[in-house]
Design brief:
By secondary structure, the chain is mainly α. The chain is built from 9 helices and 2 strands, in the order ααααααββααα.
Length: 197
């Protein structure tokens, strides 16, 4: 398998294909682990710190829980451990190393050792330069998907894990486990938050 194939598979995994039941079970299995006793299944301790810091920078705690509050970093560790093949796992390790090397070259330290302003600056630049996901129809990518890169892949996985977590689904988004009557034309202002699925 060549690098381009690995990039495509990584991007697809982070996109529509990630929403399978097995991924949901991985997300729910993170719920019962506490931050103090969490041991990464795939990442080294330094890699886990980088991913945790990256997740916290992408989705920090505000008036709503942040990525670390719903254990997005632990979920990503489980996904890579249980679903990536050896080449995909090595690619992820290499990308984390390259990411930290770029931080050191441009700012003098690895990502976790930088202050918040520099971390945000790095992510703003990554947002501009990273590849984009092609649009999809019914879970199928339209056209040839170009490599999306480490940042976009991690961001996509973080957002998916965050919005499908039980905490966000039940306590931040609108949640009605037993919906009532169908009302097809309601002004958005009457609804408030987006609905959780």
């Amino acid at each position: 398998m060549d690098r381009r194939s690995v990039l495509k598979k990584t991007g697809l995994l982070a996109g529509a294909a990630i929403a399978g039941p097995s991924m949901l079970s991985l997300l729910h299995s993170c719920k019962n682990e506490t931050r103090l006793t969490w041991q990464p299944e795939f990442f080294t301790v330094d890699e886990a710190k980088t991913v945790s810091t990256l997740m916290d920078t992408i989705l920090p705690r505000t008036e709503t829980p942040g990525a670390l509050d719903v254990k997005v970093d632990m979920f990503i560790d489980k996904v890579i451990s249980k679903t990536y093949d050896a080449m995909g796992q090595q690619y992820m390790r290499d990308e984390i190393a390259v990411f930290n090397a770029d931080c050191t070259k441009d700012f003098g330290a690895i990502f976790i050792d930088l202050d918040e302003a520099k971390r945000i600056e790095i992510l703003k630049e990554a947002e501009k330069t990273s590849g984009k996901f092609n649009p999809g129809i019914w879970g199928t990518t339209v056209g040839d998907q170009e490599p999306i890169g480490f940042y976009r892949s991690m961001k996509s996985m973080a957002i998916w894990a965050y919005f499908t977590s039980e905490e966000i689904g039940e306590n931040v988004l609108n949640y009605d486990p037993v919906p009532g009557n169908y009302e097809g034309c309601i002004p958005l202002s009457d609804i408030g938050n987006r609905w959780s699925l």
